[in-house]
Amino acid sequence: MKNAKSFAVSMIVTLAGLCFAPAVLAQEWPVPDRPIRILMPFPPGGTADTLSRLIANRLTIQLGLPVVVENKPGASTLIAVNELRRSAPDGHTILYTVTGTTSQLPHLYAKPPYDPFTDFTPLGLAAYNQLILTVTRNAPYNTLRELIDYARAHPGKVNYASFGNGSFTHIVSELLKKTEGIEMTHVPYKGGAPAAQAVFAGEVQILFDAPLTAINNARGGKVKLLAIAGPEHIAAIPKVPTMADAGLKGFDIPGLEQLLGPSGMSGELVAKVNAAIMKAVRSPEIAKVYREGGFVFVASTAEEHARIMRENYERWGEVIRRTGIRLD
């Protein structure tokens, strides 16, 4: 009888272990010999692409397995977003993206193509982003007010580049048009690198560019910097005013440099992935790039990221309704 009871207890323990084994294995991350993909919604060469590759290289060292960046540009980040949504919630597919994906694009459609709060898992905010108003180096204006006066005196003669229809740069440029009652022609490009090249070549006159590339291009004599569209001055360019300094209100909403996973990731897995990503982001070489590149460094938890996403979404919704931009 005693042996029978012992056998029964042994079987219960064994079966319980088998039942719980899949749950334990499901939380293993990273899975050995499986690469991690970081999806990049812009072409190679832009600011977000550069930062994602720095993080991928650091994670490769930390985790001991390949972490690769896959560029999937187009459709205002929607191509990369759809790839993320099709991916398993196992922590091996991550999206490095910006404000447009979670705070702006959903407001641009009567029927949004996704819900940023149910279709993604926040994995951490690396930094707040601001934009810098860049103009061609031979432009006949050297301040924001001079640009506005020129555009008002020469309707339709100023063309502005953007990273694509519905992008952060498109929305801020349209906000400038709306605020000042000026005419400018929109010329969309597929990402930051080709948009900046268009300014160099004189195909367009202005671009609200990301700080990292804008500052580097100004140092190389390729563009002039007129103003910062964001809440803070940038230490690397102390003489460049904010839009508010120049008398324009409403341009102080920051952008987000963020990492997302597919929906359905467990809390335990999110914590592991966030810890690894933010360890990489906080590494001295990467943190330096963010700080010296004009970003407001954050390196948040996943929980903080989720809260900030919601706040940013609400604020950009108000701006987009004011500009009247639609993609449908």
Summarize the structure.
The protein has 328 residues and is α/β, with parallel strands linked by helices.
How do the helices and strands line up, and which of them pair or pack?
Blueprint: H1 2-26, E1 36-40, H2 47-63, E2 67-71, H3 78-85, E3 93-97, H4 99-104, E4 120-129, E5 131-136, H5 144-153, E6 159-162, H6 168-180, E7 185-188, H7 192-201, E8 206-209, H8 211-219, E9 223-229, E10 255-262, H9 267-282, H10 284-292, E11 296-297, H11 302-323
Parallel strand pairs: 1-2, 1-3, 6-7, 6-8
Antiparallel strand pairs: 3-10, 4-10, 4-11, 5-8, 5-9
Helix pairs in contact: 2-9, 6-11
| CATH homologous superfamily designation of the largest domain | Bordetella uptake gene, domain 1
Task: Look at the helices and sheets and give the structural class.
Answer: alpha/beta
Q: What is the CA-atom radius of gyration, in angstroms?
A: 23 Å
Helical proportion, percent range: 40-55%
| Main pleated-sheet profile | 6 strands, mixed
The top level CATH class name of the largest domain: Alpha Beta
What fraction of residues sit in β-strands? 15-25%
CATH architecture of the largest domain: 3-Layer(aba) Sandwich
Strand order of the largest sheet: 2-1-3-10-4-11
Q: What is the number of strand segments?
A: 11
Mean pLDDT, to the nearest integer, reads 92
> CATH topology of the largest domain, anyone?
D-Maltodextrin-Binding Protein, domain 2
The first-to-last residue Cα distance is 75 Å
The gross shape turns out to be: globular
Contiguous low-pLDDT stretches (5 residues minimum) are 7-25
